[in-house]
Amino acid sequence: MLLLLAALWAGPGASCPQATGPPPLDLGTDGPASGRSGAVASAEPQASRIGAEVLRSGGNAVDAAVAVGFALSVTHPSAGNIGGGGFMVLRLPDGSSAALDYRERAPAAAHRDMFLDAAGEPTRASRVGALAAGIPGNVAGLGEAHARWGSLPWAELIGPAIALARDGHAIDAFHAADMERATAYMDQAGFGDSAAHFRRADGAAYAAGDVWRQPDLARTLERIARDGPGVFYSGPLAERMVRGMRGQGGIWTLEDLAAYRPVLRTPVSFRYRDHEVISMPPPSAGGVVLRQILAGAEQLRLDALPWRSAERAHLYVEILRRAYVDRNFWVADPDFVRVPLRRLLDPAYVARRLTDIDPLRATPSSRIEAGRPLAGESEETTHFSVVDASGMAVANTYTLNGGFGAKLVIPGTGVILNNEMDDFTSKVGAPNMFGLVQGERNTIAPGKRMLSSMTPTILTRDGRLRAVLGSPGGPTITTTVAQILMQLVDHDRTLLEAVREPRIHHQWMPDVVLAEEALDAGVVAGLEARGHSVRLRPRFGHANCVEVDPGTGTYRAVADHARDGGGAAAF
Ligand code: GLY
Q1: What pLDDT sits at residue 438?
Q2: Domain spans, the chain
Q3: Of 241, 359, 513, 529, which one is least surrounded by beta carbons within 10 A?
Q4: Quick one: pLDDT at residue 400?
Q5: Share of the chain above pLDDT 70, in %
Q6: Average pLDDT of the segment spanning 240-258
Q7: How far, in whole angstroms, is CA 156 from its chain's centroid?
Q8: Cα–Cα distance between 358 and 532 in angstroms, integer?
Q9: Separation of 374 CA from ligand 1 center, angstroms?
Q10: Is the CB of 178 under 6 A from ligand 1?
């Protein structure tokens, strides 16, 4: 089978077998990729094609997700990874659902004030360098998903990623520019060896079309393929990682790695109008915030207002600022603090929170109860969605946190380190580099998982799959997912239309509406007239999603056009 997958995966220009066997791949060049048997949407076309080929060769959605997850670690290095963590929400062929938490954990030597200087102020060490890295969960998480729900042999699913790392792949313009920016940052931080990992042997930056080979990563992936996910957590590879980390001032130990376990959690599931929503529970705030946004939208009958109207945008923003206060104050790792989930998910509770909304004026966030801060996040993460012929669906969001994580590559391994420790609260009440402030429940403790916004989400209707949704974007993840979902349910839009629509975001603090530059000027003016401060910015999020056409059952995979190079594939 490895040979079969390797043969099917013959690079970007490969043509797809057509005469016999499964139908050809649709790559959706200028629209969604469509098919009735399987679909994948991810941040990078080669990874999506690998996932679709796994489905075509008889693998299920989890097999394909594993293959995509490893492939992105090669082809999408800013966020695809084996040195980070994430969340997977699944719908199984029998209609049941599951949520797998493979978020990073704080090392045992971590402590509450580890990112404060002598004056008690936050330092940059939570974002750059070895201290910033939590104990990675990705390899264990993908391994756990495969052991529970996969059907093809593990090694075969990693084979295409190994081939890409060993033999190289042609870099597109987006990734060439992304890597050049990251290496400049690494040089500034004094991480020349890490920068060299992303540069040509002569020290020059890769240009679009250059072939990038990653022999260290190929060897690491070969080990993981041959010996299983456990090899990442004990034995020579783990020892090498711990040595590499400690050599850079890190605090990981072999015991930290050996103790890492993914956790199967109960998804956050609820009805939105005539649909069922399945999303991620804490330690991600994604499902909770999504629930609160949608309960608020139902309460205020947002569906009855035109999508592109200032009236709707105003009410939506007012819901967001209230939902995000709760996120900041209440949600954290449920294994460490009590999260009052029942109450937070109760529509009656949400309705009470909305009673002070003025339909004509923005409520200043400073007047909104709770006044607790938001965890600091940057906006690099990546989401992919997979559906197979049986209707098994995987919504997977995983991350290094910032682009290229801690900006460190563990020598000799090709493993790019996450900087997920910055998702913890370094100091209660202090704004971070994004102007966000942080809450008490999310302070650092050994073994604790940091709060997240990742919102891998599955939408069903009458027991049938309707869509698989998710996005990167730090705190904007949940609002991106909410806006796509509401357009599907409330406004009968296609997934392509919903993904392409300009987005709006508000997160309580800072008290600013983030709006995409493409948003209608009339909506922006209407928000400002109601007292909102609006900050325009380029596209945010990168929603790689799949929908099932409710009429025909056809799958449509949509890769967000926010960045060049998104990939959709279906057959
Ligand atoms: N690191 C981004 C998040 O977990 O939300």
Answers
A1: 56
A2: 1-13+24-168+213-571
A3: 359
A4: 96
A5: 92
A6: 97
A7: 25
A8: 12
A9: 12
A10: no
